[in-house]
Amino acid sequence: NTHSVGVARDAVIAWRVKHGAADKTGYWWSLPVVAETWDGWLNDINGFHVKPEDVWHALDGAHGAALEEGSVGGGTGMICYEFKGGNGTASRKVEMKDET
User: Fold this and answer.
1) Which of 16, 81, 86, 98 is in the most buried spot, having the most CB atoms within 10 Å?
2) CA pair distance 18, 20, nearest whole angstrom
3) What pLDDT is recorded for position 28?
4) What letter does residue 67 receive in the DSSP assignment?
């Protein structure tokens, strides 16, 4: 959500402080990069619906397994060339000059 970048950044820092350790100097700092996708056409970007606990839940649930397929994850509120978006993966085979 476009207007939730700040709360997401703050929540990532708080999560890292709780779960991380200081570096060799004894100091701890973080500069997370929080990307956003404008989803204002399909989403209530002024509703302030994303809360710190939502970000913590996403971080706690992160895993190294295969990506989910379809319109899932970040960007599900986007429109991509008249199609609903999402960060999930979709497989398509396309024929190109004797190649697949």
Assistant:
1) 86
2) 6
3) 75
4) P
* CA-wise closest residue to 1 among 63, 64, 46, 57: 46
Residue 100, pLDDT score:
54
In angstroms, rounded to a whole number, what is the distance separating the alpha carbons of residues 100 and 63? 30
Determine how many CB atoms are found less than 10 A away from the CB of residue 95.
Answer: 7
The secondary element (H helix, E strand) that includes residue 53 is helix 52-61
Contact present, 70 and 86 (Cβ < 8 Å): yes
Residues 12-41: tens digit of each pLDDT: 999 988 887 667 776 777 788 988 877 777
Name the residue ranges covered by the structural domains of the chain. 2-66
